[in-house]
Write a structure and sequence with these properties.
Layout (H helix, E strand, L loop, with lengths): L8 E4 L5 H12 L3 E6 L3 H12 L5 E5 L5 H15 L4 E4 L17 H26 L5 E6 L3 H4 L5 H20 L4 E8 L13 H14 L8 H13 L8 E4 L15
Parallel strand pairs: 1-2, 1-4, 2-3, 4-5, 5-6, 6-7
């Protein structure tokens, strides 16, 4: 593969769709070579990589489940082999299990282990695998994709919210331990207009849900994947004196009384 080793490289996990896909394309628009990681959505990942290539950069896909340490090592190696460097790591890969918080029998130990395995341990393992390459970059950055569930305790399940709370804490710790060579921040999106929410409701109820959330939000809008990707890009490339920050992206819904996500 021909590539300019002077171009920076961004590795984005869970980039076959949604926020990860939008982030990969945003970095490509800025001239970054891109590694598009996916776990099972190979077609989506290849479509994202092709979109990046059409922007004039090099892009590869790298299959891997970040809960497996050997997969994280392989993803980082694929980036180094293809591009000779890693400058930005976006930890977007995440899983959940939809469960009513009032039903304490809805979640099992296996659910917690899987969700924490990807959302927390997987992020840690991916950072560990990429760190030697990031430390050689003149402007290295890590952005973890968390959730406002980490702050509200609300969301798809208590296990998911708890995992994102742990991810936020880990972001703060790593911002200290990896400084000054690597900046580490997290974005905490609220509800974002992606296919993620379609896993637990029909398209018609989803449209009604979006209208209700937008009506409650002070900014009267719903963040898109591109909105979140723009913040991720800024934290990676323009926030030179910012590390250890957790940035909520929710059109202001955290300012409202009560939860806009819960039942009316």
């Amino acid at each position: 593969m021909e590539n300019d080793k002077q171009r920076p490289c961004a590795v984005v996990t869970g980039a076959g769709s949604g926020i990860g896909a939008a982030s990969a394309k945003r970095f490509a628009r800025a001239g970054f070579d891109v590694v598009v990681n996916f776990s099972s959505n190979a077609d989506g990942a290849e479509a994202v990589a092709e979109s990046c290539r059409r922007l004039g950069v090099s892009a590869i896909i790298a299959q891997g489940d970040v809960s497996r340490d050997e997969d994280c090592i392989a993803i980082a190696k694929a980036a180094a082999d293809a591009f000779g460097r890693i400058d930005v790591l976006v930890n977007n890969a995440g899983v959940t299990r939809y469960a009513n918080a009032s039903d304490l029998d809805a979640l099992s130990m296996a659910d917690f282990l899987r969700i924490y395995g990807v959302n927390v341990a997987g992020t840690y393992q991916m950072i560990r695998a990429a760190a030697p390459h990031l430390q050689r970059s003149p402007a290295a950055a890590i952005v973890n994709v968390s959730s406002d569930s980490a702050i509200s305790g609300d969301g798809s399940s208590l296990a998911y919210a708890a995992s994102k709370g742990a991810l936020n804490t880990m972001t703060l710790g790593l911002a200290r331990s990896l400084a000054p060579q690597i900046r580490v921040n997290a974005v905490c999106p609220g509800f974002v207009d992606t296919s993620w929410a379609l896993a637990w409701q029909s398209e018609s109820s989803y449209e009604a849900f979006k209208k209700r959330v937008a009506a409650i939000a002070p900014l009267k809008t719903i963040p898109t994947a591109a909105d979140v990707a723009e913040t991720i890009f800024w934290l990676s490339t323009g926030a030179n004196c910012i590390t250890g920050q957790l940035i909520v992206i929710d059109s202001g819904t955290h300012l409202t009384v009560g939860s806009p996500i819960g039942p009316v």
